[in-house]
## 1
Amino acid sequence: MSADVGVVQESKGLGKGQVGLLGAVVIGVSTIAPAYTLTGALGPTASAVGIHLPAIFLVGFIPMLLVALGYRALNAAMPDSGTTFTWGSRAFGPWLGWMGGWGLLAATILVLSNLAGIAVDFFFLLLAQITGNDGIADLTRNVPINIVTCLLFMAGACWIAYRGLEATKLVQYVLVAFQLVVLVWFSVAAFVHVSDGTAPAGLAISPEWFNPFGVESFSAFAAGVSLSVFIYWGWDVVLTLSEETEGSSTTPGRAATLTIGVIVTLYLLVAISLLSFSGVGDGPLGMGNADIQENIFVSLAGPVMGPMAILLSLAVLSSSAASLQSTIISPARTLLAMGHYGALDKRFARISPKHQSPGYATIASAVIASVFYAVMRVVSEDVLWDTITALGMMVCFYYGITAFACVWYFRRQATTSVRKFLELGLAPAVGGALLLVFFVQTAVDSMSPDYGSGSQIGGIGLVFILGIGVLALGLVVMAVQYAIRPAFFRGETLPKTVA
């Protein structure tokens, strides 16, 4: 889809044409990390909505698709590695654009630390499975060993990302293909057990599973949908590659749409197969069993895949490791754009002459995420988890800004035809409004001291304090940058425009 305006693109020195459509989709799937995401999301979602698990995955897909249409339109008009930061600044001005960029940076850097932590957990679990020594899995609870291993994972991911997209693609093709094959294998094996009569539940697929209105309460429905912000998040990384992609004004948008399509198809396959195999009861292998909900795959890999269960542990490890490496792409290129346009220190705009990658920004992203992980791991594992839970608010925040930026930037074109009204106005507006509702609902719910891990300060839930606190910190940093670099905030380096 064309935005019918001259394409606005300002070169920052990144390598041109390094990624095609397939490569962009692979990197997008890698960032979402389906094996890593599903292992933590299936249990809580099933406990909230029961047999309506597939319906909730479909409902959660809707705002992502609507927002993706807005991303696609903005990229067609303004292919830029800064994505939310650049588009928000062009549409609304520097202040809201800067905060949109901050939301993206905070979410991606926080999730980098979580990905590294999950990689460490499954690394030691895999070693225990290979050696038959269960004690090795307990090494992940040894704080010094855990932190050192995490930093090694982070350094490896940073090294690959620093070497540019050619190195990134080679690693991602292997890791993404492996986890997709294993997840499909797991689903097919579950269906075979159902057909053979050896599944614990052995449920036949029912149309009721796809009925979102069958969820017992709105609270349960909202809880289930809010988890979709986490399970679908990450597809927008392909838009940060726009300046390095073949067909920069069209390929990233198509890749984003295809990425979401691949993911929702995979999620439905896994959800339906697991629901058929286990059901949602509280039996030993039921998804309603609180003892297995924290990590569904660890408990069900053996019963479903037999002696090949070790492949599922390897798939989750490869998923988190691959996403760790590909997720660095997004904050590095956002920092690059912010440095390029004078919203941050110009050092962030440095490009590696050899690899044509944002070298300084890549290293900075990895260092910040590593320091955050090390500090939070020492303080409390619960604090780390609550911080990751809080990133949902930041994701809703910056996705919402992007969606509304599309509506405002294309406000003149949206009135010229019914198609443009739907694509440039209504779709992103509805997607942005849904995300705004999720943001407000999460903020209100997280004020409860019982939310998340149950940690609190002064009777207010730690998730709320962390989520709103990080956004408030962004306001402080922005004020400091305004004092140091007023040109950007006067609209001189990145002026407002309209299509």
Note: Residues 1-7 have pLDDT under 50 and may be disordered.
## 2
Amino acid sequence: MTDPRLQTLLHSEPYWTVRAMREQGSRFYRALGDALEAADLANRRRIYGAWTDELWDFYERGLRLEEAERGKG
């Protein structure tokens, strides 16, 4: 059975996840965010599959960033 978080990540726009990684992550996670942004779908699937737990955390952080950004406007 496929992890539902992985399916959510694969169907989401990576912008906010990448932004959270750049703003709140260590140098490693900032670099991983850059790789995620540059990745095509096949490579994005590999990244999400290998780092599901960590990327889920940044996905949730990205949702909060997006919400805060929309609240400013």
Note: The CA atoms of residues 10 and 42 lie 10 Å apart.
